Amino acid sequence: MRFPKWMLAGALLLLLSAAATAADRFAEGVDYRRVSIPLWLGHADTDPVVPSSGSRVAYEQLTGQSTAAPGAGGSDPVARQFQGRGPQGTEVRYSEYRFGNGDRFRELGMVTRHGHFSWEISYKDQALIDWMFRQQQREPGR
Questions:
Q1: Residue 67: which domain range?
Q2: How confident is the prediction along the chain (142 residues), in pLDDT tens digits per residue?
Q3: The whole model's pTM is what?
Q4: Number of domains in the chain
Q5: Does residue 35 form part of some domain?
Q6: Do the domain assignments include residue 89?
Q7: H, E, C per residue of the chain
């Protein structure tokens, strides 16, 4: 069975305050209710290696919110943004970057060749960086 890399965060709960990942996949049989730290998922809409449906399904499993509704995710020209709460009340965010053919991202100074390299824009996203540094470690059992 394949596990999303962020599920490792559950094993490291005592060390982590939050987790951010890019281009991850949904895994059958994973108990998403166990996620107990804030999580930010990122994916490019045209990823040719790991379809963005993997992150969409994970976000939907975690929050119970659909990413498919017309207009869902807002009108930001760079990314569709989603925010919800996980089963344990922790914040869950999902950014689906509108990579398209890549021109917009090259204009932003990125070297990404195709949509699978969404970690480049994810980890350059100032909103994600600011969010990560606002997180505080929770006490065990809370």
A1: 19-134
A2: 455 565 555 555 556 788 888 888 776 777 777 778 899 998 888 888 888 888 898 899 899 999 987 778 888 888 899 999 998 898 999 999 888 777 777 777 776 667 777 778 888 888 999 999 999 876 655 5
A3: 0.82
A4: 1
A5: yes
A6: yes
A7: CCCCHHHHHHHCCCCCCCEEEECCCCCCCCCHHHCCCCEEEEEECCCCCCCCHHHHHHHHHHHCCCCCCCCCCCCCCCEEEEEEECCCCCEEEEEEECCCCCHHHHHCCCCCCCHHHHHHHHCCCHHHHHHHHHCCCCCCCC
